[in-house]
Amino acid sequence: MAKRKIEEYTFADAYIGSFTRNLMSRKDMMRLASCKDLKAAEAVLQEFGYGEAKELYDDDIEWFIRREQNKLFDLIYDTVPERKELSMCLFPYDYHNIKVCLKSEFLGITPTEDHLMSNGDIDWKHMVAMVRDRNFTFMPTVMKEAIIEATDLFGRSGDPQEIDIILDKACYKQMLQAAEETGEDFLIGIVKRQIDILNLKTFVRLRQMKKPWNFFQKVYLAGGNISESFFFSAWEENYSQIADKLTPYGLSDAMAKGGAKLSETGDFALFEKLCEDALMEFNKKAKYESFGIVPIAGYWYAKELEIDNLRIILTGILIGSTPEQIAEKLREPYV
């Protein structure tokens, strides 16, 4: 795919850029977290462009979240010159739907809309039909081959985890290919950072579970900046030693602070939060670009994270968490 000229994004940059001012800061989110109930939260959300949220009157947080995810999808794809340029952002939803379809099939049930995502690159109804009928005519080669491999391996092992492993590898392979086709260093970099973070999370979890090295080899995602040999050499090291080695990859702080907490309490929450904060720190580079696809991609990731934070806040309000308890779980915002 040829890289588009900057001027082709003039309208999209200006239009989508106008929504950036509505993104919530940490102070804004703490104000939301201080609401006494979801009805009060809706009034605050309207100040940031969320409109009416009648779902919250019925404590239906997930349908509110889905609606906002779909609105973000429509905003981006009704505006950018070509859908393909940001298709990498949609592949995780496609692969989620494939997992749902295959696991439903193996359980002898029909996948329902409640478990399927409507904002993938392939319409979820078409995805259900393609997987059911094994009709891969309009499916990318990487995706098709992953489905065939996952089906075959599950048929021999009966282990549903094999489905996740194979499809996750295919998802990030396809994401990286799509990013590289754009020729944009930022897009390539953010996918590589996502791969690194997923590998690091897996590395830490498997170590905590005292799994053997060969299990990590099996699930390791290729394509990131951190090589498999890095993890091999660090397998027996303590977290502070590993943190020092992660400095060139922007993940030292997550490993140092999160690893210390993990060693003391066995709690992954801080480590995972700091990993996501490191991803947002990389994404903030998009704020310094005014033209082209990069600021649009930066807004997309920023808004997705904000919606994830809204889930945390609204759920916290619903179950009676204090603002301080909610704050501990919030990811670093874009603004």
Automatic annotation (TrEMBL):
Protein name: V-type ATP synthase subunit C
Record has Cell inner membrane as a keyword: no
Gene3D superfamilies (UniProt xref): ATP synthase (C/AC39) subunit, domain 3, V-type ATP synthase subunit C domain
Family in the record: Belongs to the V-ATPase V0D/AC39 subunit family.
Highest taxon in the source lineage: Bacteria
Keyword terms, alphabetized: Ion transport, Transport
Gene Ontology MF terms: proton-transporting ATPase activity, rotational mechanism
Database matches in InterPro entries: ATPase_csu/dsu_sf, ATPase_V0-cplx_csu/dsu, V-ATPase_V0D/AC39_subunit, V-type_ATPase_csu/dsu, V-type_ATPase_csu/dsu_dom_3
